[in-house]
Amino acid sequence: MSNSLFRRKDVKKAIEESKKGDDGHSLSRILGVRDLTTLGIAAIIGAGIFSTIGLASFNGGPAVSLLFVFVAIACVFTALSYAQFASMVPVSGSAYTYAYVSFGEVLAWIIGWALILEYAVSNMVVAISWSSYFIGMLEGFGIHFPMWLAIDYTSAKEAYEIVQAGGTDIALNTKTLAKAFADAPDLGFIKLIFNLPAGLVTVLITSLCYIGIKESRNASNILVALKLGVILLVIIVGVFYVKPANWSPFAPNGVNGVLSGVASVFFAFIGFDSISTTAEEAKNPQRDLPRAMLLCLLICTVLYVLITTVLTGMVNYTELNVADPLAYVFQKVGFDFVAGVISVSAVVAITSALLAYQIGQPRIWMTMSRDGLLGKKFGEIHPKFKTPSFATIVTGVLVAVPSLFFKMSFFVDLTSVGTFFAFILVCAGVLVLDTKGMSKDAKFKIPYVNAKYFAVPLLLVALYLTYREGDVMKHMEERPLLFVFWLVWLYLAAMSFKYNFSLLPVLGILTNLYLMTELGWSNWRMFIIWMVIGLVIYFAYGYQNSKLAKK
């Protein structure tokens, strides 16, 4: 049974099967480098640049621009591993497919199941964020949308109970939500409250993904062009209002202040993963996917660095802990027109991010179905639209329904762990295939630097710096996973001497594993529950129905 759990998919077979689906239809190859790069930018520059960038700047000061450089470098280690795999295995499925050819079936299932959760939850969060920005935009135009149709039931009820309890220090937003609860029509014993804009935008985006990749590509290109235009406008206009005095002190809260935003900033950069899901719709995937991944990371890094530099130069960093920092700074300098344009562009930015992720998830379902791990229905390609039709509809339902009724904080604990786990396996997969000599035919190769000359010295430096920061054992008690992190580093250092590992994938594994140690128990609890459900489904269906099992 052990051997069958770790049965691996042959790379050549995977490529052959992708050329013609089980139902006789294949996806349309119409995406070029520009389209793939645009898709990555759509996913990376979403709500974050209009909201969380403010909190990161507040904590880190002007030095937050260096945080984006640091995170981009950390992401490059993983992106390079993705790029090498994409040039070897130009098949949809992202990290799921890469794990299947390098580690075997059970780990591939775990990664695929994790990615299903990550993509779905990400889109729920994006849809709810879109609703908030959309309502704010309507208010800016003097249009008042009923709040009981734009909020979840739990948030409204909690706010109503707070107001009913009384008190003098009640936030304005809490009062607004309480009023929404009071105004909502009664449906028997319960109030009729749901987030209509979040559900509607998900349905509309899903419809666009259903009718064709060409239509989705055109919409994505237009939305990203508008978004980049606004960001460049903010940078160019903002430069004239920069006061160099605001850049001092450069790092008011030290390194810890800058790094406090590392997790949220890191997730702003993981959009390159969505590019790999469209491998079977790329014109020349082995050449174009690696180029697009690295190009979108470079463009987004430059934009993030420029915009944080301008932002912290226009106003003092202490003023940036607001929900809409870009609009705020232009209102502060009396440029209300630009602030209004930013509010509208935030809706555009989030729409493009939703589109990028909604394209990705059905293709993971499709690939898992093609391998026999899910029902054949998920692998169906629409004869006319050339899209994974059933999987797209299921994805839309799974995202739209929860976003109608649940509050955003409910989904926070469902994110993070699976993505880091997928990234670690992709980086490790490169090392495995390199060691077996299976990556010699890759069209793109990670620049080789022998890890055995660096792994041990870097480990000693890291341990010394940790010791200088305080009690090493106390750190491990507060974050037990740090013990695993140091053990993995020691193991990789030893294996680097034996197998001459490439340094960059090793750094990718360590970076992602370290960021995993930052996550709380609630993240792990939800991830473990989801994995248990997934393994039950795998052993009940996928293990027996796998194409490799039948062979």
TrEMBL record:
One of its GO terms (cellular component) is membrane. InterPro entries: AA/rel_permease1 (IPR002293), CAT_C (IPR029485). GO terms for molecular function: amino acid transmembrane transporter activity. The keyword Transmembrane helix applies. Residues 503-546 form the Cationic amino acid transporter C-terminal domain. It is a multi-pass membrane protein. The chain crosses the membrane at residues 36-56, 63-85, 97-121, 133-151, 192-213, 222-242, 254-272, 292-317, 337-360, 390-408, 414-434, 446-467, 479-497, 504-521, 527-543. It is found in: Membrane. It comes from the Bacteria. Keywords: Membrane, Transmembrane, Transmembrane helix, Transport. PANTHER family: CATIONIC AMINO ACID TRANSPORTER 4 (PTHR43243:SF4), INNER MEMBRANE TRANSPORTER YGJI-RELATED (PTHR43243). This is Amino acid permease.
